[in-house]
Every structure is written in C-alpha cells, then in structure tokens.
Write a structure and sequence with these properties.
Elements (H helix, E strand, L loop, with lengths): L2 H14 L22 H8 L3 H8 L8 H10 L4 H11 L18 H9 L5 E4 L5 E4 L1 H8 L16 H7 L1 H6 L3 H18 L4 H13 L1 H9 L7 E8 L3 E10 L8 E6 L5 H12 L13 H8 L1
Antiparallel strand pairs: 1-2, 1-5, 3-4, 4-5
Helix pairs in contact: 1-5, 2-3, 2-4, 4-5, 8-10, 11-12
C-alpha cells in the first residue's frame, strides 16, 4: 500500500475509534449506522471543509499543509508518535526507483562497536523489518535461546522478531503481558511501513503475519502507534524464571539503519541477579587442558 493509501486507512480507522462524547459533541440520542465520528463532525472539529477532509481521507488530496495536519491530529486526539506518523504519511513520496534486487541489511561498523561495548548486557541488533542482524551471547540467551546462535550470520536463516512474537510459541510464553509486546511490535511495523511504503520484503512480512495470525490482523487494522523506544516487560524465562527488564531501543533520530535493543534490570534487584545467572549459565565452557603427568608418575612408570 502506498503512502496515500496508508493515510486514508489511518484517518478512517482513527475517526471510527472516536465517539461523539469523547470530543464533547451531543447526539441527542440519535442512532448511528456506523461507529465513531462522521466525516463532517471531524472536519468541523479540525476547522476544515467537509469536501477537503473527504478528499484527504479518500487519498485524493496530496498537499495537506502541516497546519491542517496538526488540526486534524488534534481533532483525532492523536499522541505525539501518531501525530508524527500522520505527517509522514501525508508527506509527498520521493521519486520511485525501479524495483531491483533487495540487498540484505548489514550491521554497520559503528553498531557492531556499540554491540561490543555493551558485552555482558543482553543486546540484539535489529534491521528495519525486525530481522535479527546480530546479537551478543546474553541477547541470544535471553530472547531466543532455543534458536541457533549463529543464525543471524546467514541472511537466509535470520530470525525475525515480529515473526517470533506472533508465530513462535517460545517467544509468546516469554512475555507475561504478551499483548503489550505484540502491540509494540505492530506499532513499530506501522512506523516503518510509513517511512518505507515501497519495501517488498516488508510488505511480504506484513502479508505473512496477516495470513497466519488473526491477532496481528486485528492489531494491524487498529492503526494505533505504540512507541517502544523504552518499555518494561515481565519475562518468564525457562532457565532463570521470572524477571523484569527494561528494553531500550537505540536508533538514529531518522529511524534509518539498524537499531540496538538492550535489556537491563534495576541494579541490585532480583532481576539483575537473574541476568547475571543467565550470563553464567550460558558462558562458553573453557576447554580442559590435558593433565601433565606428575614427576612421581613418571618415575613409577620408569621403574
């Protein structure tokens, strides 16, 4: 779906989620055929003409000003991430390039250095489609210890976090509040789809999740944007039990390039102790050096 199609779907969905009483409109007990605000009511709240808003919601107006978009965002009661998403969808698309071979995403030297710098703390490098491009030993153990630790090195075998959250039983059981994690994943995919509307692998991923998960389909149609730069989750890990971690996503302000997701726990807490235990439990085993024969043993054999 192109940007204007996404804009139309976003406006229609968010308008349908607002009731007249949510915005101070009186209905005098009238029965409504459809849920949510009518177009003319939303246009009145935003201070724009009904024909203009109708064209915008139908994807037929491509030149909305920032002021008009802010007015519509205010009428829809959008939060800041959703307001930014609205502006992104309304922005004129760049000149389209001929479709070519999609190159696998790679970890930049700067991101790889950052991953090395947080060694000892669970960390995962995610591409824009949530493909796992790299992880350290603790990150693999915390998020996907049931998978091959070397799988991110092969673009054909890379795990995908969105796919794991919705389709993998181990990952689903990992989060005590799985719906909260799932909504954060959907919100992130929404933002990415707005920035990259002509990304065939991203479209294929969304199509796969839509076909295979009814929960994803419902959340995707909701069009809510849940920011997940920093989020706290209770996890139920098969090796170390329950713990609460803060997952922080470090990314460029433009949302381009790989993102580093780091999991931390409050210092001195039981969760921090659990992460330490996980690091010890998954530490590589040092090879046992052959035992040097004692002097007495040699003399005994010589005798």
């Amino acid at each position: 779906m192109n940007k204007h199609g996404q804009l139309a779907a976003f406006l229609q969905a968010r308008r349908s989620q607002l009731r007249p009483e949510d915005v101070g409109l009186r209905t005098y007990g009238e029965r409504r055929r459809v849920p949510g605000l009518r177009r003319e009511e939303l246009a009145m709240l935003a201070g724009v003409s009904v024909p203009y808003y109708t064209r915008l919601e139908q994807g037929r107006s491509h030149n909305a000003s920032p002021e008009v978009l802010d007015a519509i965002a205010g009428a829809l009661r959008l939060r800041e991430p959703e307001r930014s998403h609205l502006h992104e969808l309304a922005r004129a698309p760049k000149g389209r390039r001929p479709a070519g071979r999609v190159r696998p995403e790679r970890v930049t030297p700067a991101t790889r250095a950052l991953l090395a710098a947080v060694e000892g703390t669970p960390a995962v490098v995610l591409g824009r489609r949530t493909d796992v491009l790299a992880w350290n030993r603790q990150g693999h153990a915390l998020f996907a210890g049931h998978l091959d630790p070397d799988s991110p090195d092969d673009p054909e075998r890379r795990p995908n976090m969105a796919r794991l959250v919705f389709l993998d039983a181990h990952t689903r059981e990992l989060y005590a509040d799985w719906p909260a994690k799932a909504k954060a994943v959907v919100g992130n995919l929404r933002l990415t789809a707005g920035r990259h509307p002509d990304d065939p692998p991203l479209a294929a991923l969304i199509g796969e999740l839509t076909m295979r998960s009814t929960v994803f389909t419902t959340m995707w149609a909701d069009h809510r944007i849940v920011p997940c730069d920093v989020a706290e989750y209770e996890m139920r890990h098969p090796l170390i039990g329950s713990l609460t971690v803060s997952q922080q996503t470090l990314q460029s302000p433009q949302g381009t390039g790989p993102a580093l997701v780091v999991a931390t726990a409050e210092p001195g807490s039981p969760s921090a102790t659990a992460l330490t235990l996980l690091a010890h439990a998954t530490a590589p085993t040092a090879p046992v050096a052959p035992r040097e024969p004692a002097r007495g043993d040699a003399e005994h054999r010589a005798a």
